[in-house]
Amino acid sequence: MNQFTFTIKEKRFSIALMIVGVTAVVWGLFTGEHSEARTWTNILHNTVFFTGIAFMALFLLAAHTTAYAGWFTPFKRVWEAMYSFLIAGVILIAVIALGLWADLHHLYHWAADGITDPSSTHYDEIIAGKAPLLNKLGFTLGTVGLVTIWWLFGKKLRSLSIEQESKGYKSSYKKIKVWAAAFLPIAGFSSFAVILYLVMSVDPHWYSTLFAWYNTASWLVSATAATIVLLIYLKEKGYLQSVNDTHFHDLGKYLFGFSIFWTYLWFSQFMLIWYANVGEETVYFQYRRDNFPLLFFINIGLNFALPLLILIRNTSKRRMGIMAFMAGLLLFGHWVDFFLMIKPGVWHEIEMHSTHGKHSDNNHDIHEAEEGHSDISIINYGEAEAIFTGNEKQHKEGIEEENHKANPESGASEALSHSTNHSTTNTHEAHKDSTVLGFHLPGGVEIGTMLGFLGLFLFVFFSSLSKAGLTPKNDPYLQEGEHHNYDVQGF
Q1: CA 20 to 30 Å from 471, out of 159, 197, 258, 409?
Q2: Residues 436, 440, 443, 446, CA torsion sign
Q3: Is the CB of residue 438 less than 8 Å from the CB of residue 290?
Q4: Phi-psi label, residue 372: left if phi above 0, alpha if psi -120 to 50, beta otherwise
Q5: Long-range CB contacts (< 8 A, 24+ apart) of 408-411?
Q6: Cα(320)–Cα(296) distance, integer angstroms
Q7: How far apart are CA 147 and CA 166, in angstroms?
């Protein structure tokens, strides 16, 4: 069968998943103390994850086309349909950008009022230095604008691919090569900007030159895993008969190789920062390891240990049960990976704000008791560093130092200072020791939101797949791809 039919059953399934997602979002808005932050982080998390899969499908198509590869041609239409989700990604990112302009969410600390104003009590010198880059206009252009460019490139390549069926490869294939080659450097540079704004700027004090590579590797594994799952489903429905065990073997090698590459980047980023003892960058990993230990180590187990142990065998890459299991597992594993990139940064700001507010209230009581008026609350560097790293001793010393400076000779001040230390430390310990669903671990709202985005992805994918034949006729490498076959050596 060459023409895919988007059946009523598949439409109902996709729509049902989307309804689950909408229900989860609405439920999340009215559940828990930090429902607004939880809901917006879920939207950001899933938008980044599924848009990245679509982007990498387009990147893989362009890279294989430029490299004169032929083996992928029988399932070329699958990658074309996958990157159709980019238009949904543009809309979703535009919603996030609109929320930033309208102050509907506080995902990005660098957008807070007064953060770059030296006269403001919220002034942050580091963020102020990054203001030419981290601003609302830059965010909008660097996300909505660049992802729109990705979608336009994908739309052009898709139209040329369909045009080739009627006009022949001589008039269309050279154009496809030119557009594919032009997209690769644009994708390389623009993906860094998109990742910087959407993901890395959630932690605006932190910076890593490897972070964009790390994100891209996670997208790459996810896109390969999604390709495998979709191909298995289509073959079970009777489509893509020319896709054989050798194609799956090659995709399995991609899945295994890119998983190892992802681990290499994860370890390199962690090891180099730790070895150089770059304090302002080390805390990124320390905070996640100390406050999100379960997900921190599950991430390594799912995305490195299991692929290494299971996919290292040649024969496992030709067994559809193993391939389906590992592809589904890695899709979930890298969804967890992006959860760890986004959620802790937002939760840290909530934690800091809560502790800051408690400390401000106690300072207010101190100054009213001693001077009859309130004073501006300040969190000094020692306290902020202690909250971020979990160093309670340093936290206590930072507060004692500040209270001593406020009134070094007052016995009443010392008594209130002791109370402040106790209450503020307890506030921080409550945050650190408690497991908050939606931030420390995915809850029902997170799973439901993910299923909603999955339903949207499948609906867009199946709709696009049904609009053209599954066999790219007149493609000069089609015959080579259909006869792609080799024997497996070794175990």
Answers
A1: 258
A2: positive
A3: no
A4: left
A5: 410/370
A6: 30
A7: 30
Q: Tell me the C-alpha distance between 82 and 294, whole Å.
A: 32
- Number of Cβ atoms within 10 Å of the Cβ of 412: 11
- pTM of the full structure: 0.86
Asked whether 144 and 93 are in contact (CB, 8 A), the reply is yes
Contacts of 135 (CB under 8 A, 6+ apart): 110, 111
Phi-psi group of 277: left, alpha or beta (phi > 0 → left; psi -120 to 50 → alpha; rest → beta): left
For residue range 230-265, list pLDDT tens digits in order. Answer: 999 999 999 999 999 999 999 999 999 999 999 999
Structure-token pair, residue 286: 């320390």
Phi, psi dihedral angles at 430 (to 5 degrees): -65, -40
Distance of CA 315 to the CA centre of its chain: 32
pLDDT reading at 27 higher than 80: yes
Per-domain residue ranges for the chain? Answer: 1-205+455-486
Instruction: Write out the two tokens for 378.
Output: 């300040």
The closest alpha carbon to 84, from 181, 159, 19, belongs to: 159
Residue 408's identity, in one-letter code, is: P
Neighbouring C-beta atoms of residue 237, cutoff 10 Å? 13
Tokens of 203: 């932690």
